[in-house]
Structure formats: structure tokens, C-alpha cells
């Protein structure tokens, strides 16, 4: 049985904390499926982004770690660029019941600041990190812009839709930008111009 | 006038002698009980590890049993041993 009172206490604690740059939302009535967000740490390619984390609590929580996965696409050696799976020891064998959802989210924030390419989740990203660090930084920054900016939420889908109608991705992005993200206004602009 | 006492409730304050004020596993205060118990007190005792960290007995047993054969203290990660 999930320790409901402990999870409730944790949620109250996180809700009262406005400085750490982490938050947790309920998805429905169930306490076993939550959604967290972390702010990208400043001074990193993730700065300015807000990253959404899917959180599943096993019924034996806190005796087993929470299952966490990035929903927001992120370019990082320890996070799968395909499915958001995370390689972090405290979410696996180094978990302790004294840790909390908040400390786990803070650890993810720390992971964004200090990648561990020697223990990769995404081998392609890890290799780029080690061999072509400038390219890595540029890619990570681009992914933050494209997927993790508040204003870019849904932007990717909108661009895809416009591209499917036969416009180039570049034109779609520019039109959306100049029309403040309004899909219809952007299409009108593209058709006229 | 004669007062006849039909019943009385003894009221006393007590507290466990622990350094922190809440169990690091269930986060309930030490003067409350673990989530599996209804009443704090002798039925839901505190227990200390060799490292001096205290937990509800019921909470640390659940953790130790899920971690055998080499459980560690949830707070300091030293090998867990019950304080003699
Ligand atoms: Zn406890
Ligand atoms: Zn108990
Ligand atoms: Zn300890």
C-alpha cells in the first residue's frame, strides 16, 4: 500500500517551496501518477527551459524509488533522447527511503548541470559530449529552445502540421514566430506571402 | 456534598528521546506512530541503529527486509545494525 500521508506531506512541502525551481502536480485523483517540472540550471545549455518529468510511484514507495522519466525531449548523455529514460543511481540501487520526490527532482537538476558521460543512457549523445563538445552544447541548446521553452510548448506539433501542408520547416518556424505562435495566422501569412 | 468518582482518564505527556523529531522513512513525528499503526506508544516503538539514527521499528523493518542481505541506514548509508 502506498504511504499516502507521506506523499501528501511531500506534495505540501514542494508546493511551499518557490525557490528551488522544482514543482509537482497531480494528474488526477491518484497519488501514484504525478508530474514534476524542473527549471533548467543557469549556465548550462538547458538554461531557460522547463522540463516535465513523468513520476510513477510504486505501491511500495518509499521503500522502492519513484519511477521518473523526462517527457520533455532533452539532449543529455544520461537521458535517452528517444524515450526520456534516466540513468541516475539514486533512482536505482542507491535509493533510500529518506530521499523524497523533491530531492530526486533536485538530483535531476544537478544531473543536467553535471553529465556523467562515462555512464551513459544515450550512447550517441555521450560520444558527442566527449568528442565534439561544442556540437553537443549547440544541440542541447537547440533542443532546449525547441522543446523546453514555455512558449515552445506545442510549437513542435504546430510546425509539423504546417510542414505536412507543404511548407518548409524554416518557413513554418519563421511564420509562427512572427504571428506569436498562432497557427492559423501563420498559415495565412504563408499562403499570402 | 459527596462526590463519587465514576471514572477518570489519566492524562500524561511523554516523548521519545530522539534527536530528530520525525521518522526519516514515513516522515511522521516520533510522538506519532507509523502509517501502519493507529496509536503511538509501546505498540509502535522507536528503534536506534548503531549509527544513532532512529526510526519507527515498523518502518525500519520494512526497509531492512527489502534490502537484505546488506541493508544500509536510510539517513547515513552506513551498514544498518540495531543498537545493542
Ligand atoms: Zn516511521
Ligand atoms: Zn507502527
Ligand atoms: Zn544512520
Description of the structure:
The complex is a heterodimer of chains A (193) and B (84). With 193 residues, chain A is an alpha+beta fold. Chain A has two domains: 145 residues, Ubiquitin Conjugating Enzyme, CATH 3.10.110; 38 residues, Helicase, Ruva Protein, domain 3. Chain A is 41% helix and 12% strand. Chain A has seven helices and four strands, in the order αββββαααααα. Chain A has a four-stranded antiparallel beta sheet with strand order 1-2-3-4. In chain A, strand 1 and strand 2 form a beta hairpin. The longest helix of chain A is centred in the C-terminal third of the chain and has 16 residues. In chain B, strand 1 and strand 2 form a beta hairpin. With 84 residues, chain B is low in regular secondary structure. Chain B has one helix and two strands, in the order ββα. Chain B is elongated, with a radius of gyration of 17 Å. Chain B has a domain of 49 residues: Herpes Virus-1, CATH 3.30.40. Chain B is 13% helix and 7% strand. The interface between A and B is medium-sized, with 13 and 14 residues. The complex binds zinc ion (ZN) (3 copies). The site of one zinc ion has 7 residues of chain B, from loops. Chain A: Belongs to the ubiquitin-conjugating enzyme family. Chain A: It is an enzyme of class 2 (transferase). Chain A: Keywords: ATP-binding, Nucleotide-binding, Transferase, Ubl conjugation pathway. Chain A: It holds the Pfam family UQ_con. Chain A: This is E2 ubiquitin-conjugating enzyme.
